Structure formats: structure tokens, C-alpha cells
Amino acid sequence: MEKPEVLHTEGKFYFRVEGRECHLLYSKHKENIDFFSTFVPEELRGRGLATHLISHGLAWARDNNLSVIPTCSAVLRYIRKYPDSVT
Per-residue DSSP letters for 50-66? Predict the structure, then answer.
């Protein structure tokens, strides 16, 4: 499956698959970004969509020199698995 294009609005990275929204929510505080919620509808899980969102969000944070606060457990697991994703 080709990964969908990730769109970005203030506070949210997202895309739609099969008419359903998948998103990564964040709040930005000065030089920090808090990724606090990742959501993929149950029927779309297991396709790597959350990983796609998280990797995109972390790359954006790196490009903008933001320190990541991984409040969301999925983001924390991703960072533990791929520690270079936040450097």
C-alpha cells in the first residue's frame, strides 16, 4: 500500500484513507512540541499508518528545531525504537 500524503494544519498532521481520518495531534510551546495523540481507525490498523504519521511529525519537528515531548504512548514507543528520529 502506498502511504498517503500527510497534510498539516496548526496542531494536527493528518490524512484520509478509505474516507476515514488518521491523525497525530500536537501542541507547540515555544521551542517544544508535545505529540499527545495518534489515532488510526480500528479497521485501518496494522498498515503502518500511525508510523507514517509519527515519522512525518518527528521529521517536521527536527526541521523546525523543536524539542519533542512524547506524551502519546505510540510516539514514545516509536522514539524508543528509532532514537535517531529525534536528533
Answer: HHHHHHHHHHHHHHTTP
Question: Which spans in the chain are helix H?
Answer: 49-63, 73-81
Report the C-alpha gap between 14 and 25 in whole angstroms: 9
Per-10-residue mean pLDDT, the chain, length 87? 91 97 97 98 97 97 96 97 89
Bridge partners of 68, per DSSP, are: 33
Q: Is 64 exposed, middle or buried (0-12, 13-18, 19+ CB in 10 A)?
A: exposed
- In angstroms, rounded to a whole number, what is the distance separating the alpha carbons of residues 81 and 84? 9
Cα–Cα dist 85/23, whole Å? 19
* Cell numbers for 43: 479497521
CA gyration radius for the chain? Answer: 12
